[in-house]
Design a protein that fits this description.
Largest interface: A-B, 62 and 59 residues
Radius of gyration of chain A: 23 Å
Oligomer: heterodimer
Largest sheet of chain B: 2 strands, antiparallel
Number of strands of chain B: 2
GO molecular function (chain A): maltose binding
Number of helices of chain B: 14
InterPro entries (chain A): SBP (IPR006059), TAT_signal (IPR006311)
Keywords (chain A): Signal, Sugar transport, Transport
CATH class of one domain in chain B: Mainly Alpha
Distance between the termini of chain A: 18 Å
Order of helices and strands of chain A: HHEHEHEHHEEEEHHEHHHEHEEHHEHHHH
Number of strands of chain A: 12
Shape of chain B: flat
CATH topology of one domain in chain B: MetI-like fold
Strand content of chain B: under 5%
Number of domains of chain A: 2
GO biological process, one term (chain A): maltose transport
Strand content of chain A: 5-15%
Distance between the termini of chain B: 21 Å
Family (chain A): Belongs to the bacterial solute-binding protein 1 family.
CATH superfamily of the largest domain in chain A: Periplasmic binding protein-like II
Helix content of chain A: 40-55%
Order of helices and strands of chain B: HHEEHHHHHHHHHHHH
Amino acid sequence: MSSGFTPSRRGVLAAGTAGAAALGLAACGGDKSSSGGAEPAQGNFDERGPITFATGKDTSGKLKEFLEKWNSQHPDEKVTLSELPESADEQRAQFINNAQAKSDAFTVLGLDVVWTAEFAAQQWVVELPEDKFPLKELIPATVETGRYFKKLYAVPFTTNAELLFYRKDLLSAAGTEEAPKSFEEMYQLIDEIRKSPDGKDTLGFGSQYSKYEGLTVQLTGLAKSAGGALFDDQGKPTVNTPDVIAGVQAVRDGFDSKHIPKEALTYKEEESRQAFQDGKLAFLQNWPYVWELAQNEDGSSSVNGKIDVAPIPGVGDKPGSSTLGGLNYAISAFGKNQGTAVDFIAFMAAEEQQKEWAIATAQAPASAAVYEDEEVLKKFPFFPTLKEAIDGGTPRPQVVKYGDVTQAIQEAGYAVFSGEKEAKAAMDELQKQLESLES
Amino acid sequence: MAVKSRLFGAESRMAYLLLLPTLILLAVVVGFPLVLSIWQSFFRADDGVDPETGLLQQGDTFVGLQNYADAFTSSGAGAGFWNAFWNTTLFTVVGVSIETVLGVAMALIMARALRATGLIRASILIPWAIPTVVSALMWQLIFDANGIANRLLNYQVLWTTEGWQAKAAVLIADIWKTAPYIGLLTLAGLQTIDEQVYEAAKVDGAGRWRTFWSITLPLIRPVLVVAVLFRLLDAMRMFDLPYVLLGKLRSGQTLSMLAQDAATKTDYGMASAYSMVLFCYICLVAFLFIRLLGADVLGESSTRTKKKRAKGSKPKRLVTTSEGSMA
């Protein structure tokens, strides 16, 4: 039986949460009473005029420069920036709030790569005309993060992939120059490093194993690095295949054999970076932002000048694959002047803007050519390695109930890494859970 | 009955008229959202995905008490309910007990301080003045794997991993923050005690413990009971501290966090159901607490003899409000 009356959520939640939980809830107002058809939301790309662009805080100030440039070229189709909070959860809450109220306040939305499926399936964003964007110039793996059921709903602006940061000095103390290609190789190297006087106290390898979104990033990458995948092409979960289990087991082995310290269970990005910068880790898997901070010469990093980057380790003889991060641009189904919005997104994805953005923010651009630009390479010598990592990168599961899916993956991954459950048992259980979420 | 006739007289009609704005305001601000919330908790968002296009079926389905059934059996969408329920209860019972003891101790110190009274009072109150989110972030640093707590212990406890240590971390941070609140209210109670009573006790030869148990405690009891009641209600809604300190760890999940979590997944029916369960739980505890310990929340009296008189007039007040809201 379908409801004839859908109460206003804003009112309901304001009362229902007894005050304490109001933090996140107040933002979830609006109604969702429309019954959608079986067609994706269609945009009206003939409409032109002023638009609003909603995305996270412009911390570098570069975004405003881009808008000034656009606005001076398009005086009748001005873009206004609406800065949202820095926290991704807060941004998502605002977008959902607006979508449920069918508000036309936002036209272009800056979406985290993992929201594509949910926003597309809810028909909060429109299907985009592929021929209007410079998709061929963008790295194919990043364009995939904007697709849902083979249709394009978002165009990548920035992307991201994790890299293996390592200590050159400790490697040479162990008698090698080459970064390890697999977990097994890396664990052997750590044993060698521990035999040297400089490396005898090293904690070994670290990555983000705390129970949060970072753990889903780890598991998605590990599955691919071992030749498997968490979900198959049809979107069916495949988390208990031998490959995926082997991938998860590779990290569990590291914990068991003390090549990964127990404290890594508390690591998010920053904790793991801190441990590496303090010289406690020989190897660190993390996002590229670590490079500049770890190379800092003001004394905040004890490893500056001693580090280098490589692609993350694989499992067995398979190459390591990082999970992709990044920001995509989509068009709200309720926004006005969607024709202008299409042009504006194409403008942001153009090489010129992509290059300027990379130099200003050190964020990985979606445009492939930027990684070969001399000016960029001079500033970020590790960009070729990063490009390699992005090319071989894996998107996170494109599922509608991403919140439930990522939570289940985190629970399972944490149980294995903390030693609470064995890999096979935990992944079998996860498989059942993910299957039940699907139905 | 004398009471009854007064309820329908011309005078009382005037009284209702004067009360009307308040009653309307209460109905709009409290009653309406509450009823909607209950109504919402009987629904669940449709989540069928079209296999061809991947598009979501939209709308809500009436599911009756299914959301509550899921919660109480900790199955399906309600998984994690009992874990959160027991966490909430643990944080409330253990936390508030320790806070009460520490708070009273703080109040005694603040009341007895001879020098620098202002400074001592201010410093004890600082934790209470700091926003919870800020103090949670501070404790996160302290409980870091290489943080101050572990250095003091000279042993690495991984506070922010699943297990008893995570619960302990929440309790420590919460007690640190809220014991001063009880301390402050108790201090106010202490200052109303006449110094002559203590002098009399001294003359009678009562020791310090005897004085505390027989004079101080009974005299601050009315204030203390209210302070503890407020803390109980507050602790049961605990959200921001474990949310910031522990993130998604099951060990720190409270009922408020479950409600927020369901809402971020746009599962508003489940979120409302959790909220209603928490609401009823809080009401029950408040009711039992007031009944058993006689907390004097409305400030009707400060001594027991006055209270008896106040009780006599209570039924009348209740009738007035309930009839009024029906009108």
